[in-house]
Write a structure and sequence with these properties.
two-stranded antiparallel ribbon, single chain, Rossmann fold, 12 helices, 10% strand
């Protein structure tokens, strides 16, 4: 049985693999709890007046074209939903003293300590000759990396945007949730995909095949990773053709994202224009309803 399949509405070249489907998808039969939950959600979404998407028009034009063609309702790209300070700075490093905690999560490390450690690392560099030794984990691991300054163990939430905006960050190992994707690309950082659930495997596929800014490590929790970790890190961060292409593509998208929120006099970025159009559309619709 062929485990690759095509989704109606997508070009034939966009083949999906069964492992890209979440467990709930694979087990769905129409009357299971997951199906009963999702069916009205999808139905109500398709029956809505329009959709707001946390993305930028220039970043995924093909995907947006497919979405509009399928839903036949307006789709407004009002992203990125990120703090303005991380989109206006030309520098790739954000000073910790200028920004407050904005994630709403309790961080497991102070921003100052995190940036202090990042400042000790060379820009996008790492030691290819470094070898893994079994005794590093788990006993005494934290003490050793802290003393050697080769790593930083964070048990809770970390200040993600500040880390991604730092000049020493060369790649982002991510579950490919869209918020994290937008954060990474807004700072021009390539990704290493490890999709876990939901739509993450589809995001990972697009990042690898359509946008050229990511390399996939594995999918889900059921897969065991080993030497592949080193291989994909070298691929993403080295000066190979693939690594350089990923960096260039990510840098291009970074410019597109930042240009989308630009507003200088009469000149406005695409996301600003879209937001204006959304407001006009809602006001017009409300006026029509009040007349009726």
């Amino acid at each position: 049985m062929d485990s690759d399949f095509n989704v109606p509405g997508f070009p034939e070249r966009c083949r999906f693999h069964v492992t890209k489907l979440h467990h709930f998808f694979r087990m769905a039969h129409g009357t299971d709890p997951w199906s009963r939950f999702m069916q009205p959600q999808i139905s109500m979404s398709l029956g809505s007046y329009g959709m707001l998407c946390n993305t930028v028009e220039e970043v995924g034009p093909q995907a947006l074209e497919w979405l509009r063609k399928y839903t036949k309702i307006p789709v407004w790209t009002v992203g990125p939903l990120l703090p303005p300070a991380f989109l206006k700075k030309l520098s790739s490093s954000v000073q910790s003293s200028n920004h407050k905690q904005h994630s709403g999560k309790l961080h497991g490390i102070s921003l100052e300590m995190c940036v202090e450690w990042l400042d000790l690392q060379p820009p996008t560099g790492f030691d290819f000759r470094g070898e893994f030794r079994a005794e590093w984990l788990p006993e005494g691991f934290e003490e050793r990396v802290k003393k050697s300054k080769q790593g930083l163990l964070v048990r809770n939430w970390a200040p993600q945007l500040e880390i991604l905006s730092h000049k020493s960050t060369g790649a982002f190992l991510s579950h490919c949730g869209w918020n994290s994707v937008m954060k990474s690309l807004s700072q021009g950082v390539p990704l290493i995909g490890w999709a876990m659930a939901g739509e993450q495997a589809f995001n990972s596929k697009m990042l690898v095949e359509e946008m050229g800014v990511s390399v996939e490590l594995t999918r889900g929790l059921q897969n065991i990773v080993g030497k592949e970790v080193k291989e994909v890190i070298i691929l993403a961060m080295s000066k190979t053709q693939k690594g350089e292409e990923m960096k260039q593509n990510a840098a291009k998208i970074r410019k597109q994202i930042r240009a989308s929120v630009m507003e200088e006099g009469e000149a406005k970025g695409s996301s600003i224009k879209v937001l204006d159009d959304f407001v006009r559309s809602i006001v017009s619709r409300r006026q029509e309803q009040s007349v009726c």
